[in-house]
Amino acid sequence: MCSTEKKFDEYEEYLTKYLQNTKDLALLLDYDGTLSPLVAHPDLAVIPPKTKEILQKLAQVWIL
């Protein structure tokens, strides 16, 4: 298990409790340099597969 997966697992229970009575949720994230490595031009940014997988897991957990 990579450290990113471990962090997701640790926060899943916390977020579930914290957001259990939340009706609406927005997760706003920067892309170039945050979700993907910083590159010379934002159009060249590519999200790493593991990051994409984690975001997809989050999307499944919090589908409203």
From TrEMBL:
InterPro entries: HAD-like_sf (IPR036412), HAD_sf (IPR023214), Trehalose_PPase (IPR003337)
Chain segments annotated as transmembrane: none
Pfam families to which the protein is assigned, alphabetical: Trehalose_PPase (PF02358)
Record Gene3D superfamilies: HAD superfamily/HAD-like (3.40.50.1000)
Gene Ontology BP, a term: trehalose biosynthetic process
Domain of life according to the entry: Eukaryota
The protein's name in its UniProt record: Trehalose-phosphatase
